[in-house]
Amino acid sequence: MAKTRRKKEAVLVIGAGIAGIQASIDLANMGFRVHLVERTPGIGGRMAQLDKTFPTNDCSICILAPKMIECAGHENVNLLTYSEVLEVKGQAGDFRVKILKKPRYVDVDKCTSCGDCVEKCPRRVSSEFNV
């Protein structure tokens, strides 16, 4: 009986909430190259906005933060934040996806999250976390 070798392909995960993050980690640990697309500038989704989780009343960020760090630092995960899927063509196992990466006006490779650019930016935007 001939063995069929499965070619390791890339996988696209849309949405970097807790489910998308966990799916990306699991797939990346299986050896897949994962492209994780998130339309907002950051990952974590709604869970990042919550204080506690139901039904255990656990601290949300205590659960989420380690997964966010693992996902963002995983060698098999290509994290595409502030990006949107524009078009999907093809068939199961052979998709072509067009993704719009929105401009950040900050060099992401040089960013240290110090907040200086926020202070100097002339435009003020309300935070989605202050509801």
Please provide a written account of the structure:
Helix 1 (18-29) packs across helix 2 (60-73). The termini are far apart. The relative contact order is 0.16. Strand 1 (10-14), helix 1 and strand 2 (33-37) form a beta-alpha-beta unit. The chain is α/β, with parallel strands linked by helices. Helices cover 24% and strands 27% of the residues. The strands form three sheets. Strands 1-2-5 form a three-stranded parallel beta sheet. A two-stranded antiparallel ribbon has the order 3-4. A two-stranded antiparallel ribbon has the order 6-7. The mean pLDDT is 90. It has helices spanning 18-29, 60-73, 116-120, and strands spanning 10-14, 33-37, 52-53, 58-59, 77-80, 83-91, 94-101. It is built from three helices and seven strands. The protein has a single domain (10-104), classed as 3-Layer(bba) Sandwich (FAD/NAD(P)-binding domain).
